[in-house]
Fold:
Amino acid sequence: MQVTLANWRTAPFNRWAFHHVRELVPSADIPNDPRAVRALPAAPRDFKGLDIEAFLRETDTDGMAIVRRGQLVFERYASGMTDETPHILMSISKSMLGLLIQELGIDVQRRVVDFVPELRNGAYGAASGPIVEYRKATGWNPLGPGETPSDLHAFLGTLQETKPHGGPVHYVSPNSDLLGWVVERATGRRYGELMSERVWKKIGAERSAYITVDRLGAPRCAGGMCTTLRDLARVGQWLIEERPAFLEELETKGDS
Structure:
């Protein structure tokens, strides 16, 4: 029952691994500000009529929280997780990246190679992999016998063009990691520091978060951010209270 890089994302090993990620993969801190924690008072409500408890058991849900008007009305944990436990967000990490880019005001119309010219001769020179090699490069999968360690930035340079600029949306996780590289190049600062300063401290997080990094420190922005459940709820509350215009913009884009 040993949890390893080879099995940590599969059942039953993921029940432990998903809230002990930094014991398996290198990570970088995303500090909070203990002096400015957003209040999230408990105001429990009775949801027995919805049989939420049965739903949580049947779906192997590690944690669930419901916030209404700034109050925590429902909260449950399983698989050894607690309110103090950072849990991996997987692709919600992409949403956190989007919030950071919006906060930084980076011009999203500029080309990637304006920030990272090393990619000019690859997929991103005109515009966008092998998923296993991608995971090995980010430290999420073990290397095979005789394989040489890679890294995220080197992997991105191997990708070849699949979609033109301005074309249809194509879900490609490495593109999100590339945006993390763009953020660091555009600002001259590390991703974890920026996420801490421009998002995590602003939402009034109660605890520090973290993000997995490759062997050279590049962040896995596509899926590696880990936070407590309550602090993830605070992200939503912050958007409602402080960034309603941003939410309206998202709704408009969704309708279109």
Residues 173-187 form the longest helix (15 residues). The chain has eleven helices and six strands.
